[in-house]
Amino acid sequence: MQKSSQTNVKMGEKMLCAGTAACMADIMTFPLDVAKVRLQIASSSVKQLTSNVLTLQASGLGPQYSGLLGTLFGMARNEGLKSLYGGIVPGLQRQCVFASLRVGLYEPVKDMYTKHLNVGESATSVMIIRIASGITTGAIGISVAQPTDVVKVRMQAQSRGTGAVKYSSSIHAYQTIYRSEGIRGLWKGLGPNILRNSVVNAAELVCYDTIKELLLSYGIFRDGLPCHFSAAFSVCQARQAGFLGFYKGFTASFMRMGSWNVCMFVTFEQLKKLSAQFNSERQSNASKTSLAVLAQKATL
């Protein structure tokens, strides 16, 4: 996220652009996220229950599927197409909060650290600032957005194929969790989530920021769509190298996050560009208006 022609984009505008871009990416890739959650739950349930599919179904976990495509087609066939977007509302709520903070605040926090820490301008110092900024905004974002994360995962996990629907809507889920588990229930798992999301956020944003800077500094691309796409695709490769084989559902997770990151970063950059252009035109029009007023007064 190297500074370029978008330096006149304010912090609030960057946060709005980040949240909007993340929501658009979520809508396009959400079925892959649902499939990832189902595969992970299925794997965990088999180990815990050590029983057959009928027992799993009776426990309310619904039909069990194998593989990414098997999960997607099986859910669509047994539970309806709507099941592929189960939890989309809290998912969008999560992105409106989480992405707005973790992505939208990254550049302002990075500028603040650069100004106040005085660690120098060496490559190592710049990298330290970037990593610290990514960790900071990731921790802030998930600390605020944790309730939406809890609701999203629970709504994705519930099965409509067996009628085992505990939450009828996101509002109902928030209310049910609060009544049965208290306020702590909405922030359940916050500690591990802070650790995970701060590290992942730093890895994604630092990778994107660094690759984009290299592409621009070596003149490989101008600050435009090809540059943004290439930098975002590099983030996908970094995730693949870092998380391969760590858990069941990796294929779904990688495809989801790979396509999600490309969509989010590219859309984010385009929205920032549009915002910068709008601000420039507004400032230009304001200057022209001021000059016209001064000229009119001078003739009086």
From TrEMBL:
<dbReference type="InterPro" id="IPR023395">
    <property type="entry name" value="MCP_dom_sf"/>
</dbReference>
<keyword id="KW-1133">Transmembrane helix</keyword>
<feature type="repeat" description="Solcar">
    <location>
        <begin position="125"/>
        <end position="214"/>
    </location>
</feature>
<dbReference type="GO" id="GO:0055085">
    <property type="term" value="P:transmembrane transport"/>
</dbReference>
<dbReference type="InterPro" id="IPR018108">
    <property type="entry name" value="MCP_transmembrane"/>
</dbReference>
<dbReference type="InterPro" id="IPR050391">
    <property type="entry name" value="Mito_Metabolite_Transporter"/>
</dbReference>
<dbReference type="InterPro" id="IPR002067">
    <property type="entry name" value="MCP"/>
</dbReference>
<keyword id="KW-0813">Transport</keyword>
<comment type="similarity">
    <text>Belongs to the mitochondrial carrier (TC 2.A.29) family.</text>
</comment>
<protein>
    <recommendedName>
        <fullName>Mitochondrial uncoupling protein</fullName>
    </recommendedName>
</protein>
<dbReference type="Pfam" id="PF00153">
    <property type="entry name" value="Mito_carr"/>
</dbReference>
<keyword id="KW-0472">Membrane</keyword>
<dbReference type="GO" id="GO:0016020">
    <property type="term" value="C:membrane"/>
</dbReference>
<keyword id="KW-0812">Transmembrane</keyword>
<feature type="repeat" description="Solcar">
    <location>
        <begin position="13"/>
        <end position="112"/>
    </location>
</feature>
<keyword id="KW-0677">Repeat</keyword>
